[in-house]
Amino acid sequence: MTDSKYFTTTKKGEIFELKAELNSDKKEKKKEAVKKVIASMTVGKDVSALFPDVVNCMQTDNLELKKLVYLYLMNYAKSQPDMAIMAVNTFVKDCEDLNPLIRALAVRTMGCIRVDKITEYLCEPLRKCLKDEDPYVRKTAAVCVAKLHDINAQLVEDQGFLDTLKDLISDSNPMVVANAVAALSEIAESHPNSNLLDLNPQTINKLLTALNECTEWGQIFILDCLANYSPRDDRESQSICERVTPRLSHANSAVVLSAVKVLMKFMEMLPKDLDYYGTLLKKLAPPLVTLLSAEPELQYVALRNINLIVQRRPEILKHEMKVFFVKYNDPIYVKLEKLDIMIRLASQANIAQVLAELKEYATEVDVDFVRKAVRAIGRCAIKVEQSAERCVSTLLDLIQTKVNYVVQEAIVVIKDIFRKYPNKYESVIATLCEHLESLDEPEARAAMIWIVGEYAERIDNADELLESFLEGFHDESTQVQLQLLTAIVKLFLKKPTETQELVQQVLSLATQDSDNPDLRDRGYIYWRLLSTDPVAAKEVVLAEKPLISEETDLIEPTLLEELICHIGTLASVYHKPPSAFVEGSRGVQHKRLTSSAGSGESVESPDTGSAAVSEAPPTVIPSQGDLLGDLLNLDLTPPTSTGPPPTTAPGMQLGAMDLLGGGLDSLLGGDIGGSPAMGTGFGAPPAAMPASFNAPISGGLDDLFDLGGGGGLTMGTYIPPKSVWLPAMKAKGLEISGTFVRRSGVIQMEMTLNNKAMSVMSDFAIQFNRNSFGLAPAGPLQILTPISPNQSIEAALPLSTVGPVMKMEPLNNLQVAVKNNIDVFYFSCQYPISMLFLEDGKMERQVFLATWKDIPNENESQFQIKDCHLNSDAASNKLQGSNIFTIAKRTVEGQDMLYQSMKLTNGIWVLAELRVQAGNPNYTISLKCRAPEVSQCVFQNYETVLKN
Amino acid sequence: MIHSLFLINSSGDIFLEKHWKSVVSRSVCDYFFEAQERATEPENVPPVIPTPHHYLISVLRHRIYFVAVIQSEVPPLFVIEFLHRVVDTFQDYFGVCTEAAIKDNVVVVYELLEEMLDNGFPLATESNILKELIKPPTILRTMVNTITGSTNVGEQLPTGQLSVVPWRRTGVKYTNNEAYFDVVEEIDAIIDKSGSTITAEIQGVIDACVKLTGMPDLTLSFMNPRLLDDVSFHPCVRFKRWEAERILSFIPPDGNFRLLSYHVSSQNLVAIPVYVKHNISFREGSSQGRFDLTLGPKQTMGKSVEAVLVSSQLPRGVLTANLNPSQGTYTFDPVTKMLTWDVGKINPQKLPSLKGTMSLQAGASKPDENPTINIQLKIQQMAISGLKVNRLDMYGEKYKPFKGIKYMTKAGKFQVRT
C-alpha cells in the first residue's frame, strides 16, 4: 500500500475517472482522489481541468484533505482566476478558526494564490492575523506580507502593512522577529532606498536578543540584516561583535558564514591595537577551517569566500595552509579552489611545503588539475622571490617526466618567470629546447618561440629552431604566428648576418600570404622599421620590457571591500559585484567597509599589492627653474573669467559621464578577468569640436593682490610642480601628469594629458574614489577636442569637497579613474593638504588661546623642519600664501614663536606653534588638532611650503 | 528565497518537482544537464550553476540530485543546508532516501516539503516538530488509516514550535529512561611516500540517543575539555556555560541528535594508528609491475585495529592484478581499475600483506601517475584524540536514567601517497 498506486491510470482516461471520484459521496474516496491529483501534479502532469471539482472538496473538517486541496489551489489558482474566487469564503472563514494551525494555514495559502482578485479579500484576514494572539500565526502572517508585496506592492503600502511589519521587529517572540526581518529584507530588495529596515541602536539590541533564541534560519536572516548596520563608534561595533561571536560555533554552516560576514565588516571599525581585535582575529580561523571538513558543496562555497577573506586579511589563515592541501578524491571544483588559496597563502615561511604539494599534484590523473598545479608553481615563483630558484628546479623536474601536457604547461610558466627575473635562469633554456618537438598547444609553442627569440644570442641554433617552426607557418594559430614573426625579427636584429633570408621569408609570409590583418600590420610595421632605420628598430623591438606584476589575479580593492560586505551570498561565490547580478535584485545598495576614525587603520588595499600605487608623490622638491616657470605661468595668465565652465558640446560630456555614471564599482566590476574592452569610438574620432575651450584658470593676479595686502614679501600660493601620475606604459599610451592648486577658494586639479599612443584619444571622463575629505569633480572633465598622437593638452578640473568621504591612507591620497575611448585607467595621487585650507582660517586670538588649551595634550604632535633658512617674517608670509595664518608672534629669548591657525574644508581647525631661532636652520613645530591624524599631512605641507 | 526544487535521478529524469512561489518550468534543469554532461564524474557537477534568469544550487545524495532554483540573491549555504535537511528528513521518515522510497510516499513528501518552506522561507525543519505535524508512515499506521479513514496529519499545533526549546516536544514519556552518547572520531590524514605525515586532523562528533521522560536538563563534562577549541554545537547547548566552565549544559531533543562536532587540528594530538609499507612499481619497457603492501599498527594505545579496508585506484594501463593476500580477500575491478582489499583485523604478531604482480597492456608505456592508497579502519573503545567524558548529570526530573558512553575511532579520508 504505497503512494505509487496513485500513478496508475486506467483506460477510460485519467481525468474522467478522477472527476467521478472527486464528486463521490464517500469521504474516503474523495481523499484518495485528491491524493491522486496531487501525485500527478508532482510529476508535472496538467490536472488543472479538475479545478472546480477539487475546490469543492475544500469545505472539510479533515485537516489532511484541506491541506491537500490548498496545495492544489496554490499550483493552479493562477490559471483559473475566476474559479479561485470560489475559494475565498472558505479562506476567510478559516482565518477565524479556533485552531491556530488552521488560521496560519489559511493565511499562508491565501498569500500563495497569486491572483489579484483574491488579494483584495486577503487584506482584512491578514491584518487580523498580524495581530493574532498566537505567535505561530503572527510569524506566518509576517511572511505573508512579503508574498503579498510580491504580487501587489502598492496594495501593501496603502494598507499600512509595512508599518505593522516593522512593529513586529519588537515582538516578544524571537521567531516572529526573525520572520519579520526576513520579510522586510526581501521587500527592501525591491525598494533599495526605502529605508524599510531602519536600523538604530534600539532595534539592533532587539535583533541581538532575538538572535540567541530563534531558529537557525532566523539567525541567518538576522545576521544578514545586522551586516547592513553601520555602528556609531568602535565601542558599539565591539559590543555587537561580542554578541555575534558565539554564532561561530553553530552547527549550521550558513549561520557561521553569516556571522563571519558581520565580524569581518565590523572589525574594520575596531582600532587595530585593541586587545579585542587580536582575539577576534584568532576566533575567526577555527570556524573557517571547520567549514572545510563539511560536505564538498559546502566546502566549495566556503572556499570561494575564504578566497576573499585571505585577500582582505591574510593574517587570519596564514598558519592554516595545511587544511587547503588537496585530497585525491576531492571533487574537481574543490581541488581547483584549494589550489588558488594555497597560492594566496604562499609565503617564504611555507613555500617549501607548498612546492612539495604542488609537485605531488602535478603527477595526478586529472589533466585540468595537473595543469593548474604546474601553473601554480609558476605563480609561486613570481610571488615569493626567494623561492624562484626552487620553483624553476621543480619545473625542470616535471619537464623530465616528459608527460606531454605537463611539459607544455611548464614552458608557459617558465616564460613568465623569465619576464619576472630577467637574466637569472637562462641556463635552463637548453633543457627547454630539447622538448621543442613535443609542443603541440599554441600557448606552449608561442611561449617557446618567445624564449628562443628573446635569448637568440645565447642559443647557437636559434635560427634553425625558428626556421623549423616556419615550415608550417600557415597552419599555426595567430598567437604562434605573431610570436614567430617577432622572434625572427629579434633574431635578425641580434644576428643580422646569418638570418637575412629568414627574416625576409617571415615578413613576406606575414604580409603577402596571410589574411589576418593583425599579422599583416605587424609584418608591415617591422618591415618599414627595418628598412628605414635599423637602429630605431633595434630600440623598439629589443627595448627593455617592463617586469610583470606580482599577482595579476587579485580582486580590485573597492570590489573586494564590497564583496566582504556580501560574504556568503551568490556575489561572493562569483566574485562579482552584487549590482551586476541576479535579475531579482533590482537595485542593490553599494556597501562599503567603514573604518574607525580614531585608529591608524587603513581602508586601502591590502599589502599584498594593489593596482593603484601612486607613482611619485607630488611633493618632490622642484628645480628652481620649474618653479619659476610655474610662477610666471600663473602670474602672467590674464585673469580670464572664473565663471561657469564652458558648456560647449554637452552631448559628448553627458555621454561620457553616462558611461561612468554607474559609479566606480560598476566600472571595476564589469571587466574583471576579461580582455581589455576596446572603446567603441576607437578609430573613428569624433568631428573636431569648436575650439572655444577656455581653461577655467582663475586670475592669479587677484590672488597676488589679496596676499600683497598682508605684507611685503608674499610669495603667493605654493603650487607643487606637476608630476607624472599615470605613466603611459600603464595606460595604453595615455600619460597624465598634474598638480593641485587653490585659487580664490577654488580647488583645481591641473593636468597635462599626453597621448603617446598611435591612435586618437577622445571621450574623456574622470571620477574619484571616495577620499578623506570628500574631494569630487565639480563638473565634468573639459576636454573637448580629441587628442591626436603625440599631442598633449592641458586641462583644469575644478573640485568640490562635498563628495562621499572615506578615510584614505595616507590621508591625502586620492584614487582617480580616467576613462577614454580606449579603456578605463586607475591611478592614485596625493594632494597637498593646503588645498583644503580655507581663506577664512584666521582664528580670533582669544578663541585660539581657549582652543589651544581645550584640545588635550595627547593630540599634540611635534615635528622638526630642518634646513630652512627663512626668518620668521618671511616664513609667516610664505605660509599665508597657503592660507596658514599667523595670529600672534612672540619673541622669547631670541626665539620667535609664531602662533598660526588654519581651517580645513570639513571644518577641522588646526593650530600650530612654530618656533624659529635666529641662526638655527631647524624649526620646531607643534600641531594641535581635534583630529590628530591630519597632523602628519599638515607638517609635510609646512615643510614643502617653507622650503620652496 | 528558495523558489523551486527538482529531484533528478541518476539517469537524468526529473521525478519530482515542488514550487514554493510561482511555477518555474522544468526546462530550467537543462542547464543542469549541460553541466552534468561536462563533468566527468557525477560528483564533479558544480554546486552552483548560473542560468540567465535563475541560479541552480544542487547537492548529490544517495545518487539523487536535489536541485534548488533561486531567483534573487540568497546565501548559497542557506540553500545547501536546507537541502541537507530535506535529505535527512526523508531518510528519517522513510528509512532510506531513494527514488523508490520518495515515489512510494509522494504525498507525504509533498506535505513535508510544504511544511518545511513557506514562500521559500524555512518554516519547520526540526524533525521533532515535523513528526508531530505529519506522522511518519509505518506499515501499521497505513493499515489503520486505510481501515478507519484517519489521517497522518497532526491536528494540533506542535508544542515545541514556539517554545524557547523548539527542538523538544512536551509530554515525552518513556518507561525505560536512557541516554546514550557515542564519541566518534574520524582521522583525516595525508601520509607521504616516505611515511611521514603531511596533514592530519580529527573530525569528532558526539551523537546522542536520548529517551528521557519530561524536560530533563543534562550536563556533560569532560576530563580534558581543553582539547575542544574548535566546536560546533547543537542549538540546545548553552554557549555561555561552555565559555565559562567548559561544561555542556542542555535540554536534549527527544531521540537521536548530534550534540556536538569538533575539530582537532594541531598535529601533535593526532595519532596515526597504522603504517603502510608499500612498493608499487613499474619498470620501463616491461609489461609487468610489482605490487607489495604491508600494514602494521602504529599508535593504537594497545587497542586492536579492526575492519581494515584498503583501496587504491591503480593506473589506467593496468590490465590485471595477480596478488596474494596473507589474510582477507581482495578484488580488482578491471573496468574502474579499483583494487580493494578487505583486511579485517590487524594482528601485530603477523602483519597482513598483499603481494604479487600487475600486468600492463602489451606495449603500453610506464604509467605516469602514482596510485594513492585509501585506508578505512575502526578502533573500538577509544577516541584517538584522548577525549574522555567525565560525568553526565541530570537535573529537573526525579527518576534515575540509564546512561552509557561509547568511544570509537574511524579513518575518515586517510590517504597514503606512493
TrEMBL record, chain A:
InterPro entries: AP_beta, AP_complex_bsu_1_2_4, ARM-like, ARM-type_fold, Armadillo, B-adaptin_app_sub_C, Clathrin/coatomer_adapt-like_N, Clathrin_a/b/g-adaptin_app_Ig
Keyword Transcription regulation: no
Keywords, sorted A to Z: Acetylation, Membrane, Protein transport, Transport
Topology of this chain in the membrane: Peripheral membrane protein
Top-level lineage group: Eukaryota
Domain Beta-adaptin appendage C-terminal subdomain: from-to ranges: 837-947
A biological process from GO: protein transport
SUPFAM superfamilies: ARM repeat (SSF48371), Clathrin adaptor appendage domain (SSF49348), Subdomain of clathrin and coatomer appendage domain (SSF55711)
One CC-aspect GO term: cytoplasmic vesicle
UniProt subcellular location: Endomembrane system
Domain Clathrin adaptor alpha/beta/gamma-adaptin appendage Ig-like subdomain stretches: 718-828
Segments of this protein annotated with the region Disordered: 584-620
Family label: Belongs to the adaptor complexes large subunit family.
Full protein name: AP complex subunit beta
Automatic annotation (TrEMBL), chain B:
Any Pfam family the entry gives: Adap_comp_sub
Domain MHD: 176-417
Any one GO BP annotation for this protein: intracellular protein transport
Key words, A-Z: Cytoplasmic vesicle, Golgi apparatus, Membrane, Protein transport, Transport
Keyword Membrane included in the entry's annotation: yes
Bilayer topology: Peripheral membrane protein
Record's GO cellular component terms: clathrin adaptor complex; cytoplasmic vesicle membrane; Golgi apparatus
UniProt keyword Protein transport, yes or no: yes
Cellular compartments annotated: Cytoplasmic vesicle membrane; Golgi apparatus
PROSITE patterns, A to Z: CLAT_ADAPTOR_M_1, CLAT_ADAPTOR_M_2, MHD
Superkingdom field: Eukaryota
Family note: Belongs to the adaptor complexes medium subunit family.
Name assigned to this protein: MHD domain-containing protein
Taxonomy of the source species: Eukaryota, Metazoa, Chordata, Craniata, Vertebrata
